Amino acid sequence: MAVLLFCTVAMACAPAAHAEDGYDLWLRYPPTESARATAYRAQVSQLLAADATPTQAATRAELLRGLRGLLGVTPVPANTVTQAGAVVVGTPSSSPTIARLRLDTRRLGPEGYLIRSVAIDGHAVTVIAADADAGALYGAFHFLRLLQTGQPIAKLDLRDTPRVKLRLLDHWDDLDGHVERGYAGASIWDWHKLPDYLDPRYTDYARANASLGINGTVLNNVNSNALSLTPAYLEKAAALAGVFRPYGIRVFLSARFSAPMEIGGLKTADPLDPAVKRWWRDKADEIYRVIPDFGGFLVKANSEGQPGPQDYGRSHADGANLLADALAPHGGTVMWRAFVYSHEEPDDRAKQAYTEFVPLDGKFRGNVLVQVKNGAIDFQPREPFHPLFGAMPKTPLMMEFQITKEYLGFATHLVYLGPLYEETLKADTHAKGKDSTVAKVIDGSLDGHALTGMAGVANIGAGRNWSGSHFDQANWYVYGRLAWNPTLSSRAIAEEWVRMTFSNEEGVVAPVVDMMMGSREAAVDYMTPLGLHHLMGRSHHYGPGPWVEGGPRADWTSVYYHRANREGIGFDRTAHGSNAVAQYSPYLAREFGDLQRVPEEFLLWFHHLPWDYRTRSGRPLWDELVHRYTSGVDYVRGMRSTWSGLEGKVDAERHAQVAAFLGIQEKEAQWWRDASIAYFQTLSGRPLPAGEAAPAHTLEYYQSLEFPYAPGSGR
Ligand code: GCW
């Protein structure tokens, strides 16, 4: 137990001034503006926090760090409340003071907490109580967030528990340090120096994740290498698990389905083969010997060239159950991805996952989650929610969002993904009547599942600011907050983040939040308006490529998706076309299939329409498309001017980088607009609407651009 007393001279306790390079993320803990700081100091005059376990020690250390930074306090050990303004954190077993209060902590579960203003021996005290250490840690971060965002703390009565059980980051990190679709530098994991060297950054990674409630991390790419399951790499993973454990974070690994052959010397990886079953059971036992709280496996199988059960004529359920049986004795989970589409299958790619997985509903073991991307194609700027949500009631489905912006401008574009996540989670599947939202599928409440999960493909790298840009940190942040509670508002989360990351000044908060909230819609407009999708450059996915055709498979081209010709544009997924609409509930199938009712943002996702089709604005489709492209670019121009107006209100170093990146974004938004218009105009044959500028270059110029070294490519 420790008690903290304040420095009388606040200055003496202030952290050394340092340039803001983004390393501290939203945990900067800068000195609080003076009037507010004075009030807070009276309310936070003592800290009682045990440090008998690693998690308790981490909780205490974070509170000390935060309070010292925000309010300028110096810790002095003690163990009872002796004055008003004590903060007591812990569980009934770690804190006699909390035990005395007889709070109903049981109902908080292993990760929940409550924060309450109470009186103890006549003193006003803030209690952060939980039933287990991890809950107290989360509560401490919540309390710090209240201070960081300038909230009143005198009359608190909060309780919070996560609505989703597994809240994970999926790293697409290769063992050689490359990050697939990573735009924030090399992998954060220095596999070569592990397990002996534990970069302090790993601890800061754990702190940042714990501050959001993220409780698991898949260390390696789903396009996986069997070597990560060898003893040497398991030891390295175990070292990371040791760093993360105090922060409530468990380690998971992507498992290569053919590992029994590649590192086990077997002749087959057939899931029904007894030797293969034995191999996975032994492997699981071995893993749990070195990582006792190992979370489980993530598997990409029979997808984009990865090995899987279908190589042996078996189903995805056979494959998933093989690994599930191996993990079950240890309490581990299999996350089996539904991102599958076949090489041979000529059917609409948007339909294939549903076609393959729905018949398997009810065939998976109890410790299997099927991991489904938010949309049926591939993390596009906008997609309708994946039709699997709501269609497999007997199987827990977990959400897979992409945090890294593979299709949304890499690191440089300011695109806040909160509205994208929120739009998907709030979407109504109508699976069990109205209000059967995707969020309710994910949190298990719609179909009564206790095993629930959400995964975000991480945007974290070894770059100093973690995510490749300052604003990309917000995407990590909003993902984590929504994984904890999928019903939160992305605007409220943006506001929290801006306050913690940049400033509590209203003159900063309001314009930055507004700018963020419209940024995703702008990217949709300048890249793929009105339901267009998958029009990016081939394989590296950088920049526009609506002309991409030919190559190894049709569904890796752009022409497959936009289907533009002299007559019109769009993918007919109605009953007259691929009938993908039929994979949604009858209510939605009718809505999406009906031109009068389909939300306009999905118009060309579901319909092929003539260039002169009259859109809701009254403009013909071609004119509307051009209008959207232009307004996307205009929005970016607006963000640049908003941001330049904030000069002096945000530290110079971060201001300058954001300003420069917005400049890149404007250039690239213009490039997307111009190249797309130049290309589609060759098909529509229609003039640009009045007042619309012609593309800066010829179509041939845009088509000639090549980017062999664009970052993050798959391989
Ligand atoms: O979006 C695509 C990416 C691939 C990725 C794949 C997947 C890991 O372009 O790089 O591979 O999705 O999700 O499996």
UniProtKB/TrEMBL annotation:
Hydrolase is among the record's keywords: yes
Domain Alpha glucuronidase N-terminal positions: 25-143
Span of domain Glycosyl hydrolase family 67 catalytic: 147-466
InterPro entries registered for this protein in UniProt: A-glucoronidase_C_sf, GH, Glyco_hydro_67_aGlcAse, Glyco_hydro_67_aGlcAse_N, Glyco_hydro_67_C, Glyco_hydro_67_cat, Hex-like_dom2
Residue ranges of domain Glycosyl hydrolase family 67 C-terminal in the record: 468-691
EC number of the protein: 3.2.1.131
Protein name: Xylan alpha-1,2-glucuronidase
